[in-house]
Design brief:
Layout (H helix, E strand, L loop, with lengths): L4 H12 L4 E4 L1 H7 L8 E4 L3 H10 L3 E6 L4 E6 L2 E7 L1 E3 L11 E3 L3 H6 L8 E4 L3 E4 L3 H7 L1 E2 L5 H7 L2 H13 L2 E2 L1 H9 L9 H12 L4 H7 L1 H7 L20 H11 L4 H9 L4 H4 L1 E2 L5 E2 L3 H15 L4 H13 L11 H25 L7 H19 L13 H6 L5 H15 L7 H9 L1
Parallel strand pairs: 2-5, 10-11
Antiparallel strand pairs: 1-2, 1-8, 3-4, 4-5, 6-7, 8-9, 12-13
Length: 440
């Protein structure tokens, strides 16, 4: 296993001073999976004051990032490395944080407090991989398994439920039976976790390659963190265009969409309002008129509750609101959409519609998907060719209209009229053509 030279030197420095130190957690897991490592976390027998003394002696700068829990962050060549003292945790009273921690000298006891076997391994060059709980075997089997008693692990920290689903989604793994049962049994404890922390994990889950399985298998957990999803469970869509109930359609649409957070969030919410507007006609066919607007309202409330960043919230809600407007593919005018919501939103909206269609009846969607794929390609061509879809793209500006005698409000009105004609290809975007039109 390869670790950076700076980390090797840091471990050697601590060992020279009489302390043990290991790389722990996700970096060890990812290296064993053959993935390029991310952040490197270190665990040491040195208590915070002792660790600071070692770093000062070695001329390494550091930041006191979490002394209460034994964590300082060393910064070497502009790269941060968290160093945490081996510890055992006290009682958990809030389903999230231990009331106290005790610093210890034993790496084995430190690993025993961790969440899952695949994260409870340590490494340094002298000791090799320390794996007390079968983490390497679970990596080979594709299993997420709690360290020790799964029920206790989730009662201690309910966010571990979301982390379990995140690892299952990202790695393409499955929870072992005991861990899955404990996650479902303790799901209501997620109500004790801050909305912001839940949202961070939710986005990571949605971005995973195994998201369809996770959304489908653990829908009851998602129903706790997003109660608005519950009416979608088993809500039938008796319609020739559909082969799934509303929730299953949502799960398939998420999995069919590009791995972009705002798009995957939009797919999670795009039909969440359907059960509220469902009607059934005399033939037994279900209809969901106005569901896009209703879903957008619900998405707005959910994302505000999660305290999602405004940029993500605003675009996701807009994509949900407009996703159904691309239903009549032969009527879509790309430059109209570019004018209305800009290039990025339009490109994302087309991706949303394609993902939505791919979760429909496959016998019905061929023409629509092909048509929208063609329109999606034309968007980039329109932009690359410099075609006009904004007032600023026009070959004339306000000064030209002032020179022709236009004043005040009518300047903007006239420019919008010209843009509309140019966008609809009824007027060439040349200075000569536009001035001729205005002179007439």
């Amino acid at each position: 296993m390869q670790i950076p030279t700076d980390v090797k030197n840091l471990i050697s420095e601590f060992e020279r001073c009489g302390y043990s130190m290991y790389v722990v957690g996700g970096y060890v897991r990812d290296m064993l999976l053959g993935k390029s490592g991310g952040d490197i976390d270190l665990a040491s027998s040195a208590q915070p004051a002792q660790a600071e003394a070692v770093l000062k002696n070695a001329g390494v700068s550091f930041v006191e990032t979490g002394l209460k829990h034994g964590t300082i962050t060393a910064v070497i060549n502009h790269t941060p490395y968290e160093i945490t003292t081996f510890r055992s945790d006290g009682e958990y009273s809030d389903s999230r944080h231990p009331e106290s921690v005790a610093f210890i000298k034993d790496i084995n006891a430190d690993l025993a407090r961790r969440d899952f076997t695949i994260n409870a391994m340590a490494y340094n060059e002298a000791a090799g991989v320390i794996d007390l709980f079968g983490g390497q075997e679970d990596l080979k089997r594709g299993i997420i398994r709690a360290v020790g008693d799964a029920d206790m692990r989730f009662k201690e920290d309910a966010l571990r439920i979301m982390r379990a689903l995140r690892f299952a989604s990202q790695l393409g793994f499955r929870l072992d039976d005991e861990t899955a049962a404990a996650a479902l049994a303790n799901k209501e404890l997620l109500n004790n976790i801050s909305a912001e922390r839940i949202f961070v994990e939710l986005v990571k889950i949605l971005m995973g390659k195994n998201v369809l399985f996770v959304l489908s298998e653990y829908r009851e957990i998602f129903g706790v963190i997003i109660p608005e999803l519950r009416p979608c469970f088993d809500c039938a869509q008796n319609n020739p265009w559909h082969i799934y109930d509303v929730y299953s359609h949502i799960a398939h649409a998420v999995a069919a969409s590009p791995k972009k957070p705002v798009i995957r969030l939009a797919m999670l919410f795009h039909d969440i309002g359907k059960p509220l507007v469902k009607t059934t006609d005399e033939r037994g066919i279900d209809h969901f008129k106005t569901h896009a607007e209703k879903s957008a309202d619900i998405a707005q409330r959910i994302l505000e509750r999660f305290k999602a960043p405004n940029a993500i919230k605003d675009e996701a809600v807009a994509l949900v609101k407009y996703h159904q407007t691309l239903e009549k593919v032969d009527d879509i005018r790309p430059k109209r959409w570019l004018n209305k919501i800009g290039y990025e939103y339009t490109a994302d909206l087309f991706e949303v519609r394609i993902a939505d269609l791919k979760a429909h009846n496959p016998e019905k969607i061929g023409y629509e998907v092909q048509k929208i794929n063609g329109l999606r390609q034309s968007l980039a061509q329109i932009v690359a060719a410099g075609e006009a879809f904004r007032i600023s793209d026009l070959a004339v500006d306000g000064n030209d209209l002032i020179a022709l005698g236009y004043h005040g409000r009518e300047i903007g009105e006239r420019l919008n009229e010209i843009l509309s004609l140019v966008v609809d290809d009824k007027l060439p975007n040349t200075r000569e053509d536009i001035l001729n039109f205005l002179n007439k």
